# Entry
Amino acid sequence: MTTQTIPAGVQIAQAMFDACYPRGRICSHSETDWASATFKGARHNFTIRFDGPGSHTYAETLIERIENDDLQISGHLVADITAPGQRFASAPECYAEVDVAVLTLAN
# Structure
């Protein structure tokens, strides 16, 4: 019997979903292979959106959470996670969007 490894992109997407649930949703996710002379992995980019009253607070909480929590990804190391972009609006509709960038390295 072979053991199937869940790809890092799927694990990271699940972790982002868990971090923003139930108020936020993942609007986009992209994954690009990455390598240096000694490591190989992938860059993952997400846009997470919160709608309605309190969206700014939910976005701030997400940013704090991802910057302070250690994400555990089976078979991979989360080398870097940042929130390089945020967009907020209160009129005509109230929303907040957070861009999240994650670099994973294969173990």
In short: The mean pLDDT is 92. Residues 39-87+97-107 form one domain.
